[in-house]
Amino acid sequence: MHNEMILETISVTKNYFGDKSSGVNNVTIFIPKGKITAIVGESGSGKTTLLNLLYGLLQPDAGEVFFKEERILKREEQLQPAHEAMRLVTQNNQDMDFYATVWDSVRSGLSASELGKDTELKKITDSLNMLDIFPLKDMPFGKLSGGEKQRVTIAKALISKPEVLLLDEPFNQVDATYREGLQHDIRYIVKEWGVTVVLVSHDPAEILSMADELIVLKEGEIVENGSPEELYNSPKLLYTAQILASNSQLTSEEAKKCGINSKRGTIVIYADHVKIVKGFSSKWTVKQVLFKGFYEELIIERDGIILRATNYAKRKYPEGSKININIEDYFEFGKWESPVRSLPKEV
Ligand SMILES: Nc1ncnc2c1ncn2[C@@H]1O[C@H](COP(=O)(O)OP(=O)(O)OP(=O)(O)O)[C@@H](O)[C@H]1O
User: Fold this and answer.
1) Domains defined along the chain, listed by start
2) Which PANTHER family is this protein grouped with (predicted)?
């Protein structure tokens, strides 16, 4: 089914120093309505620049941005940045008053024409309830935890029911244990209110669990896009594989020692594809155990080769213990980074 588009950029370029070394170059994207689109990429790849261009906060040097086929006006053409149907939540609560109560903070998201109306109370209450922060309504914003602050900024952004919500690294300040709850609530809001969300993120876990669509940026250019499943299961680029999953990279010589015969330069093995199995043949040593909440990531070593392995049986394999593994899948990347899909291998 063809998705209805709400936002698009046509060959948009924004450079900060007059050359291609910064910002974004010739970017054409389509944002589907009522979905969550994640813009991903390494630090400095242009994610925030693209988000600000979509919002109209930055003006493109070339190209155009459209909201529902209506061109987003340039700064000199409008009184306020951005289209009124969009809201941007920036990183680090930049535009929040730390002394204001949660109630007043959320209320400040209403436009002048909405303030003082009969509907004001209901709008504030609905927004607070939607983000599950009504009990905090009298607390000063500055006294809240990172996760609570983020809920308030989103409630403020949503109070006037925008059509598009743009979120820059929305879970950065949110404690890992509260992330999933907030991710779930954003998904719920998207479904209930039909809001379109565009978010910038560098965390594979949140991208894969939340987004309907992914746009991969590298050095200011779009290099891949598609659903999280498509890109995770069949990344065209080594770069995409690195962004979407915790992984190990081996040379073909190293891979050979793991039973993988490949003539291509780089072999990528997702931690999720390294399975711990019973057996006596090949012993790997657990060098490090990384706590990841409901699972662990093990850094394991054999003959100088280091791999990452996901382990759900927590505390079963302490540092120094010996384990056997199966490599269930891997990707081979050659000179042009186009991968060959690989068959499961036992090690
Ligand atoms: N206001 C600015 N002035 C000059 N250069 C800038 C400005 N904003 C961004 N850049 C540069 O443009 C490039 C892209 O920056 P941007 O913030 O869009 O990347 P990002 O992918 O969001 O990075 P991060 O994940 O680190 O936030 C970087 O090289 C950055 O240094």
Assistant:
1) 5-236 (3.40.50.300), 246-346 (2.40.50.140)
2) SPERMIDINE/PUTRESCINE IMPORT ATP-BINDING PROTEIN POTA, SPERMIDINE_PUTRESCINE IMPORT ATP-BINDING PROTEIN POTA
